[in-house]
Amino acid sequence: MALIVQKYGGSSVADADSIKRVARRIIETKNAGHDVAVVVSAMGDTTDDLIDQAMSIDSDPPAREMDMLMTAGERISMSLLAMAIHAAGSHAYSFTGSQAGFMTDTLFGAAHIKAVRPDRVRRALDKGSVAIVAGFQGRDDNGDATTLGRGGSDTSAVALAVALGADICEIYTDVDGVFTADPRIVPTARRIPVIDYESILEMASCGSKVLALRCVEYAQRFNMPLHVRSSFSHRPGTLVIPAGVDPRELPNI
Predict the structure, then answer these.
(1) Which GO MF term does the entry hold, naming one (predicted)?
(2) How are beta strands 3-8 and 168-173 bridged, if at all?
């Protein structure tokens, strides 16, 4: 048995059918004998829609209120996914970033994680339930909601995996891993089965959007293996691991 953190991006939870498909995948992992914690992004274009609504009211909204608003999208995703898991016959608890113990500084819109204290997440896992956490968010020392900026849900997932001592952090997206170029633009692009942190950091700094730079830096700092996969297929994806590590030494997941 392994402890796995799975992160699902906005395209993976874009609508009710997608959320049901993700729920089935989580339950499959659970039924294989693993403990599963999940981090979710907001559904589809929810975040952009919230920003548009805010700007239609105030062209220069207060940063604190924007962060309060921005946390709503992930809260919708987490609760609907928990409901989908219940409807499929399993059990889940959903948690906001604050409830999951994500403590940040007070840089609204681009906060940095200072600590993760996932006590409630761990208790849910100990009960045999799936724990679902809203990505991209936390709270500061004043108790105010904060957001982590671009790629924040990826960073949330890695930080949660590190705090829980997970065996691996799976990043689910709409492509089948890391490629030599964007396969949606370059049909001849090749999937990279295994890549080290330094190489993926170089790709991210050059504009690759598969993984956020902060997410990879966090994973590298704590040697957390990443597995970039598509939520729309069961293809093998890409492992992101320290240079010199044999992927066969990782848990058989």
Answers:
(1) aspartate kinase activity
(2) parallel
The residue written with tokens 């809203």 in the block is 134
Structure tokens at 99: 């409830």
The structural domain count of the chain equals 1
pLDDT at 98 over 80: yes
Of the candidates 203, 191, 185, the residue with the CA atom closest to the CA atom of residue 227:
191
Percent of the chain at pLDDT > 90 equals 78
Position 145 pLDDT exceeds 90: yes
Structure tokens at 149: 């900026």
CATH code where residue 98 lies: 3.40.1160.10
At residue 123, does pLDDT exceed 80? yes
The yes-or-no verdict on residue 242 having pLDDT over 90 is: no
**Alpha-carbon torsion 19, 224, 198, 138, what sign?**
positive
Beta carbons of 197 and 221 less than 8 angstroms apart:
no
Give the residue from 159, 170, 150, 172 showing the smallest Cα distance to 225. Answer: 170
CA dist., res. 234 & res. 221, Å (int): 29
Query: What Cα–Cα distance (Å) separates residue 52 from each residue in 40, 67, 73?
Result: 22, 14, 13
| CA angle (149 as vertex; 13, 41 as ends), nearest 5 | 10
Q: What mean pLDDT do residues 216-244 have? A: 91
Question: Residues 2, 161, 193, 19: is their CA dihedral positive or negative?
Answer: positive
Q: What single DSSP character describes residue 213?
A: H
DSSP β-ladder status, 226-230 and 238-241: antiparallel
89 phi and psi angles, rounded to 5 deg: 100, 5
